[in-house]
Amino acid sequence: MSQFTSHQNSRRSFLQTGAKAIALPFLASMLPVSTRLMAEKTLTANAPKRLLWMAMGHGHMEDHFYPKATGAFSDIALPPGFDPLKKNLAHMTMVSNFTNKQNKQPHEGSEAVLTCADVVGFSGKARHNSISCDQVAAAHLGQGTRYKSMQLNCPKSDTGNGHGGVAMSYGEDGSPLTGYSSPPEVFYKLFGGNLSKDELHRTLLQRRSIFDIMDLEGSSAKRLLSKDDNEKLDEYTTSIRELELALIREEKWMDVPYPKAQGSAPKEEEYLFSGSHGDKSMRSMFKMIVTAYQTDATRVITYRMPDAGLLKSLGMSSSPHTLSHYGSNTTLHELNLQRTKKWMEMYSEFIDLLRSSKDPLDPNGGTIYDNSLVYCGGGLRTAHRTLNVPCLLTGGGFKGLKHGQHRIAPKENTPLANLWTTMLQDAGAPVDRFADADATASSILA
Amino acid sequence: MKGYLIIFNVLGLFVAALVAAAETPQSIAAPKSIETFFNTYCYTCHDTETMKADLSLEDLTRTITNSTDAQHWQDILDQLNAGEMPPKKKKKQPSREELSLAIGDLTDVLAAAQEMLKDSGGEIALRRLNRREYEATVEDLMGVRLDGGKLPDDPSGRFDTIGRNQSLNAMQLQGYFSFGQEVSKMALYWATQPRDKVKTIRESWINKAGRPKEIYELVEKTDLVKKEGKTPAEAGLTEEEWKKYNPDGPNAQNSVWRGQHQYYKNNLATHEKGFMLAHDLLVNSVNVRFQHDARATYIIRAKGGVAEGVKTRRLVRLMRDGSHGGKHGIAFGSFLMTGSFDDLSLHELEFSPRYPPEYRSNALHFVYLLEDKRGGPGFEQMYHHYKSIEPGAPRDAILMEWVEMEGPFYKDKTAFELLVDKYKIASASEEELDDISKDFLADFAKQAFRHQKDFPISFINKIHGYYKGKRKSGASFQEAIVDPLAMILTSPRFLYLIEPQTVKGRSKLDAITLANRLSYFLWSSPPDSELYKLAQSGNLLKTGVLDQQVERMLKSPKAEVFFEGFMSQWMHLNRFDAVGLNSKLLVTRTDAMIYGSRREPIEFFKTIVRGNLSASNFIDSDFVMADAALAMRYGLTQNYSGDGFKKVQLPKTSARGGIITQAAFLSSGTMGNRTSPVIRGAMVKEILLNDAPPPPPPNVPELVHQGVDPLSSVRSLVDLHQQKVQCASCHARFDAYGLGLENFDAVGVWRDKELVTLAEESQQIPRKPKREYPVDASGTLPNGTIVKDIFGLKKALMKDQRKVAASVFEGLLCYALGRDVSFTDSPMIKGTLDQLSEDNYKLQEMIKAIVSSKTFLEY
User: Given CB 3.0 to 4.6 Å as the disulfide criterion, which of A159, B290, B426, B707 pairs with B192?
Assistant: First the structure.
């Protein structure tokens, strides 16, 4: 269990309400009622799958990060960037030859990585994005959780990071879902504020009446306008509707108490100074991710990780963008290697965390690792190259994937959307093809 | 009446005809040169028979009419650019010239196609207030100097006024509402605070070295014991003090102690004159502390001087807030200390910060003054390993006698504040407030909704109903009124610049809508009472009135938002904000320099507009707008006097003048910590020559790719990549402009030599290899003109005045209308520029031409 959740015995015992005599794993009985009610549904079957996409911003240097041969990690020569991964090599996979074919932007690695959309477009259209694969997943897998999905982000001050845009996740209309950039924010989302149920009820009612008023006001303003301009105000009224829907979801969940937090929220001070403690905030976010899965707050998460913050935590004053133009500058090569190693150290720590965190929703007593599909990568390979982008996979949720290998897609520049399709399918979302996918990636993985 | 109708009808037909003309599909032909190329190198695989990779180039349309066609051609260009086609293994390879021709022509055609398809048909999309406008509008309406940093992001695009680029989602709308709640609380808080009288608070820094003095005295005494063998008692130390301060004891004197001691000792002669902005102290600043009123501005003054013999270390920067003695604060200007220890100089600067909406207290805040040493914000600061940039100058160079603030200075009360006074919100009883609450909301909403027609009474009724509900549940007036105010600030009538339209198609704006459009163009905030009155009386459209209003509005301080908003975007200063220059390596990249560089283009633009000067000044001018830091770095201290931004007349020998020698422009054109003639050249082409080069394709090789000597001069690297055909086809069209700017380093300071180092951190500078090259800024421009240096470059560019005029004019048009300029605007643009050319493209005439154009006056 995470340090934030605690044992909570409720009078509304699961075993009393449900006549189904399921032998609850020990951990599940510790869950708050909310999660246990969800558990009631899921424990009958297999543990639910959890999806996670993480992006690193800039890529890595060829010699530091990309193994030259394919096959089992134990049989091939590994680049120095892999040093910190030693103990977790058996629990991860690297795949080569995936490319987000739609990405035409050398600085915006993460803006379209999950949408596989041509953001710049061509016909002089304003930038536009389309729905990201995590949001497609959320539509299917997010129905029974408090949040359909969650987005974690690096702070705005994390500049030059190679992510581009403002988010990894994009809604159905292509608008960015920026999510939360500070660990305390996520903490309060997971465990609620300090509002009593009455107070909560009152705020919800107030918000409802505010939305009602604004909805009418939006429609009344529309009458002043011509048809074209009305389309703009449609965005306004649609947004109100969406807020109302979110409200209904919140109302539905109002009776379900938040899991009880143990310990206090992460300290804001740790993340001050322009996000200079990239590693600390990442560790904290990692914990939040695992806690979110354990408490079943959500099953779909994306994390746009701080690249500049990570550099700052290494005491480097160069920006990630400066590092990306390493050329033949050996000093920059050294800095790049340090950064790659730091990334992989963090990644390895995260695998440790996944593997050591019990999954309360797993009837077989498995870990979060066992039931998750985790992608870590980004839209830039090295420097400003957008082809054959970094792709690390971990978690036991990929069908037929045996970790511990460097695999390669037989076709150069295989659409990254193929992998997204497979991840969605493996997690149980009935998706045939995502975005520009021309096949699934299952044959590459299995 | 009948005649009027007929005119209207005819006009309607005319408009319909125009629309039809605009809808005629336009097309652009594929370049002829490609046919030979296809024939020779491509058809062996990609003809209708072989169709390798399902691609037949024969079937490809030669007439680009839509974005799908264009995309196909773009794919081909991408392949050629990436050097992927024809495949390297094929024996028959195109020559450099052939490839260059094909790529060049195709790039041009596609750029033209892009332009064609970009057309929005001149439709102006409804837009909402961008962040600048929201801040300015709230300030104008409610009187608080708001920092809108937490508002939803503005979309990217040429200008933040373009409605078509905006979108709104639920999360952002929620954000607007929450922000509106905070703004309401902020405005209520401040509007109910009495206004203070103007006062002066002076902080004297004479004999202020308390702690260093204590330490100095203790160390002197412990030295007597250590070095001269006296007993602690003889040295004047108590038993306890000796135990505590014995240098060999557990409390060994640390570097902080040594610094304080050093400081006091070094400056024994000056403590009674003031405080030195020293190296050795952890807190090396002086300050003044006062209550900040979110409605007001202040003046900061200081008196000080520099030690004898000091030449360049005369810069003091002013910082607001920030921990550690202001080190981590925000710079807002600099002083050039002209005085000496015996004859101190007096300096002053306006201080007008903005505040986040949570700022609702009279808390004390600091303004700090520090020597302007290198270091950016936050952790990039670098003081403790500072090496003197002026050898021979004393370690501690600047003495400050006192710092003072004068203020608060208020503007006239705003609509909201007047309503708060009128309805006695601060003093009336809760019952009395209930009685007036609805009028209060309605009166405020009228102002907030910018006097547009169809005032929504029912909306006011509803939000008032909400207010009553909250009051019933026990909330006070101040608590209950917040959400209704926030609802007004979230209404589409506030958030969007609604232009009510009754007639379909093109038609004249009604007067109120015109007043709003004009006001948001030149003030980024609502019309004032004079504009509203002119609109209501219908006089706004009378001959000469619009021109008069433009002149009046540009003189008003409210136009600052326009100067900043337009110039920042026209010059792409977001590039400057994001540039990754490492302050630890670049000694002149100080906080004051960053502040001054960022501000200079805006002050420059303001001077050109207010003085109605020619657009040619953007290419070259006989003056610069410089503050203390810029005057120092531009070598103009002899010509600069006073404080803040001043118009400095340039000596004939100065290379400055125009925008391309401004530090912000030059710093934007850098890569890593080195100059980038490539970026600078592309910026010259886009900003001055109004011809933006296409964005670089992805997956092109690096300039300093592996195998190239990293200590090469920038010039040789540029030459090297021009030898690559894929690069040369585009880069030959603009690199030379950038090379002409090679005499300016990454910060924008003049250099005769280029220093190249492998160091990435300041500590590495002595160890890592470095090399020096004499700067060669000569080159041949794309039109064949040979230039020797920056002087020659500017002279050559001066021949293209019309292009820079077009660039500014199109920029202003786009900014003013809130839409991209499209090819349907071309006749109007050409006609206006022809007219303006007769009087050297004067800026105010440009603005007047836009405001009185049909495009601006119509929906």
Answer: B426
